[in-house]
Design brief:
- The chain is of the alpha+beta class.
- It has two domains: about 90 residues, VC0802-like; about 45 residues, no CATH class.
- The protein contains four helices and seven strands; from the N terminus they run H-E-E-E-E-H-E-H-E-E-H.
- The strands form two sheets. A four-stranded antiparallel beta sheet has the order 1-5-7-6, covered by helices on one side. It has a three-stranded antiparallel beta sheet with strand order 2-4-3.
- Strand 3 and strand 4 form a beta hairpin.
- The two termini are about 25 Å apart.
């Protein structure tokens, strides 16, 4: 299946879905070898080390420090990696409601991490904004 590139179609067809659970961002040294056992939802290698996106319970169990507790909203539309404007449209919708967003594009979908206390508001903001942004 080919991803969608048309912004209007992406916005009309996206169905924001709030995943269960709390997630946190942690950083571990790049040479750390045990991190795969933590089963991160995602990771990114930076000069300063590895950023891991973990379930909060896994980070707590491993004794890792982290910043804010986040929730994950998945846009259940198959967005192409080369699509233009989806991230910006989501950011605008959430900015209007004063909600921070950390967006990760994966092969099939975009995933937006928002502060846990704002998750329901973010879900509503994305649902109401989709028709307005098209």
């Amino acid at each position: 299946m080919t991803g969608i590139t048309d912004l209007g179609t992406l916005l009309r067809e996206m169905r924001p879905d709030l995943r269960p659970g709390d997630y946190v961002y942690c950083s571990v040294p790049a040479h750390e070898t045990g991190w795969p056992s933590l089963e991160p939802l995602g990771f990114f290698r930076e000069e300063e080390g590895l950023t891991l996106i973990l379930e909060k319970a896994a980070a707590d169990k491993a004794g890792l420090s982290y910043g804010p507790v986040m929730r994950c909203i998945t846009l259940t539309v198959h967005s192409a990696l080369e699509a233009v404007g989806l991230t910006a449209a989501v950011a605008v919708a959430l900015t209007r409601h004063g909600i921070s967003a950390n967006v990760i594009a994966a092969y099939h979908h975009d995933h937006i991490f928002v502060p846990a206390q704002d998750a329901e508001r973010a879900l509503a903001a994305l649902a109401e904004a989709a028709p307005v942004l098209t």
